Amino acid sequence: MLMCACCEETGRDNHQALFCDPQFPYEDVVSARKNDPAHSIQVKVKYQPGNLGVDLDAIDINRGLVVKAVLPDGQLAEWNKINPDSAIRPYDKIFKVNGKVGTVQELESFIVSSSPDLHLEFRRPQRFEAKLRRPGSLGVRLHYKKSSMGVLVSEVLEDGLATVWNINNPTRVIAAGDRILEVNGEALSPEEMVEKLSLEEEVSLLVLHYNQDPIPIRGI
């Protein structure tokens, strides 16, 4: 089986000025089952430094900041009350700030330095189940931290079950930047999911697909 998994034990995983790090409830995983196509959501607020009120996962350096939780006292919570049809929820991803793209560090910097008008563009993922059955390698590289929202797919290799799935399911493609939230119906810790993926002959994955390319790497 070819399934490379990388776990970061230490390192910066979120922006402390914007959010804390509460545990997100399992019902948020359940709500992620709805199979809508990936789409963008526009949010505009008068930014109050330090009061955006969101907990973010920054593990995918080149593809944006994934929402872990909208905190009850903050500007995004207020936005959600006023704009229920475009409310921000867990697993949405900030990929553009004030019209600018960048690495997660750059996006965080754009938010902190924004005043007074803050325009955030979120990406809401498509949710689907992918069923992979051995023999054969999964053909993916995975990345996570202990506090990650699921397990990040950092690369889909040319040879493997994931590529075979993609060929047979062009509307439900597994791609770099996607998140795996469940394995065989279980919402586990990232470490437990990776272990289960390495052992099971048949796996059903709950996948979040953002349909988004990474930002171009800038030359030096």
UniProtKB/TrEMBL annotation:
PROSITE patterns: PDZ (PS50106)
Protein name: Protein MEI2-like 5
SUPFAM superfamilies per record: PDZ domain-like
Residues annotated as signal peptide: none
Residue span(s) of domain PDZ: 42-126, 136-206
UniProt xrefs under Pfam families: PDZ (PF00595)
